[in-house]
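anyone else get weird line breaks when pasting these?? whatever heres mine. first is seq + tokens for prot A
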Amino acid sequence: MLTVEHLTAGYDGVPVLRDLCCGFAQEFCVVLGQNGSGKTTLFRAVSGTLRPMGGQVLFDGEELPRLPARQRARRVAQVLTTHQTLSGLTGMDIARMAFYAVDGLFYRPCEKQEQRIRQLAKKLDAASLPDRLLEEMSAGERQLAELLAALCQDTPLLLLDEPTASLDFNRTHELLIKAKRLAEHKTVIATLHDPALALRYADRIYLLQDGRLVAEFAPASTDVRQIEAYLRMLYPRIRVIRWEGGLSVDYQTEQEKRTEK
């Protein structure tokens, strides 16, 4: 269980998150919010790369930001939206770095661990990824390489910052299906920009606006009208639609919105 208690965090003394309180259980959680709402800042505070200005971030009772880096690496792994393409490194090299984070820079993964890296790559439908150079990969493939490294850390908490941003249609849905399966035995939190994807795959959705939590709900057990009311706090022209496969969304034009009124 990840618990965020009265978290205030930001940059150069200016808060982005303000008195944020929320909890994340062992399920697939999605955080939605417009640009600048504080999604990435939340992840940085949780992972310990950004020191909170106030409040606490607790994982199973331990204050994550105060733990030494190697202890944090045993509890939380993250995949960021920004990628550094380091010349000469392969997907295998990036995956090995996960072991360095946990066991130290001088640790060398054994043959069994490298076999595990290849097995995880196959599960991501990217079996060739460990042998390819990063500079030869597309942005989406580099995203998968970093996800591979995060999975190698084998942590109980996994943070995915806009994991579908560079992926094509097929890869997007395949990744979210895998994220939902991972949440069967760990806490997985992703930030997304697409509410339709969140409604389809998330066990629980959190809405951030101006650094504050404005709503939290489970799509499977919340009335469609209530979901639409929540989402309209962020997306005023959204319309939630129920169909055979679950929930989806549509965008209302100004004329449609006037007709609805």
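and prot B, same format (seq, then tokens)
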Amino acid sequence: MADLVDRVLEALGRAFVTRAGDALPNLLDGLADPLRDADDRLAATDRGWAAAFDLDATPEPRWIGSATGTSVPGGLTLAEQRDYVRDRATWRRGTPEAIKGAVRAILLATNSRRVDLLEREGSPWRLGVRVWAAEVPAGGSVAVLAAAKTQTPVGILVDVHVESGATYEHMAEYHGPTYEDALAAFPLYDSASPVEATSVYHVPEEGTDV
């Protein structure tokens, strides 16, 4: 497709261009600039979609989410917004995976972003959502609860449990990235500290007690 300025020039017609004289370049820029954003969004991508409707190309995946019934949480990067809409959580509203996915999307980036559901917690109408302190975003359990409620069936009460567990990144940094590394440092499952022969001691993660 021709450049926007060239298309504006063609649309003006010969008589207009002739009369514009030396002012023509500035006139073209003034007419084209307000249209450029809309033009970019309507330009066809390699897949034949207008960019505004192509999830991989649009600068506003949140708008596509709204148009398809998926409310994208705030605070996500552009790539995370695209993944969230692509996952189409609202198409699975009320399912365990939809609830976990909505919470996982707001957690701080780690290798795990672990979310556990504790179903029928005390009654068939109560659901527990368990996350880990090192991954909880600003807003704490309130933010986690709000995210879970976007996918929770009507009538279900949600309780948030924030566990003070160490993340994978913390364990990998201090004790090694593999299970074998952890086993070498802490060979006894029921031991609060490693065997004395290893001379390795667990370093609690900042903000947690483990």
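btw re prot B: Residues 191-199 have pLDDT under 50 and may be disordered. The beta strands are 116-119, 126-132, 157-163.
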